[in-house]
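Handout, section B. The chain below has 189 residues.
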Amino acid sequence: KKLHQDLIHCGMLIQKEGTHQYYDRYRNRIMFPIYDVRGRVVGFGGRVLDDNDKPKYLNSPETSIFKKNRELYGLHQALQQVNNHQLPSVIIVEGYMDVVALAQHGIHYAVATLGTATNTHHIKLLSRYTHQMIFCFDGDDAGSNAAWRALTQCLTLNLDGLDIRFLFLPDGEDPDSLVRQIGKVHFEQ
């Protein structure tokens, strides 16, 4: 009973309303542990295996240790690539798979918001570890809107010396698909 309650609280299980039956929140999904900047697992994300299933991405529910609008997927891993916790630059993308694909191609300085728009907390957090942020969202209307929101969030802050850039992708492309087509060198250029 206690184990079920703990699994429900952390979002791994969902109890069917009015029953004593449970089901796995992440069934038929690839699981991604979400680490905080100190390397502690604070939540999980899951991506559907079949692109027809919805929602495409699913995160742990908000808990006392997981606030999705305060975490960045991949930041802990990116910081493991440098000795002094200072990254020359960070690419901010939309999804886990973008971070994974970029890392597979040798780009180990990408992070993703967790289904939320980039906010001032994300920008302040990243500014502790880099002086250059490159926002790279999908080449569609949603990506353009996300870039505009990121820009407005950046403008509300007074972060001297911060270099903010935007990489606009061709229509229909995302960082995952583009890096697979053109490779690391061309993507970074």
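Note. Helices lie at 2-9, 75-79, 96-104, 120-127, 141-155, 175-188. Compare this with the example in section A.
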